[in-house]
Amino acid sequence: MPLEGFQEGLRVGEGVPIDIIKAGTPRPSTLTALFRGALGRCPRCGKGRLLHHYLKMVDRCAVCGEAYGHYRTDDAAPWLTILVVGHLTVPLILISEENFRPPLAVAFAIYLPLIAGLTLLLLPRCKGVMAAALWALKAEGSEKI
User: Fold this and answer.
1) Is residue 132 left, alpha or beta, with left meaning phi > 0 and alpha meaning psi from -120 to 50?
2) Disulfide: which of 43, 57, 82, 113 matches 33 by Cβ 3.0-4.6 Å?
3) CB neighbours (10 Å) of residue 73?
């Protein structure tokens, strides 16, 4: 039975066979899926995009057709982002404060853009990791497609 929007063995809009969806194709390891998710790629095939725009999950992978629209990462991605950014920046801030004691204006001019930049950089990657973890662990989504 072909996937909705897919012809049997063909990608949407192309005449290229889909080689990833074959009976018996093994699922990638959890670590591989998490790495692919961190790169914003489909955890299954590693070729399609996992996120549309900045943080919107795609409904299905454009390459292999795997459904992702029903996975909800909710607060897990911001939690992971805060955890990672905090563990990266707090030691740097403490070391610089202890050794250099910069004036408050200089400290804010350095620390705030650093923290904001890291947060904006890591948030989509953390969302990809959480979505890939849900997929790799075969978690049910909050709604079925």
Assistant:
1) alpha
2) 43
3) 20
pLDDT string in tens for the chain (145-residue length): 444 544 444 444 343 344 445 555 789 999 999 999 999 999 999 999 999 999 999 999 999 999 998 998 989 999 999 999 999 999 999 999 999 999 999 999 999 999 999 999 999 999 999 999 999 999 887 665 5
| H helices, E strands: number in the chain | 3, 2
Beta bridge partners of 17: 10
Query: Which residues fall within 8 angstroms of residue 92, CB to CB, at 6 or more apart?
Result: 114
Q: Is 72 exposed, middle or buried (0-12, 13-18, 19+ CB in 10 A)?
A: middle
Ramachandran class of 94: left when φ > 0, alpha when ψ lies in -120 to 50, beta otherwise: alpha
Place of tokens 């909800």: 72
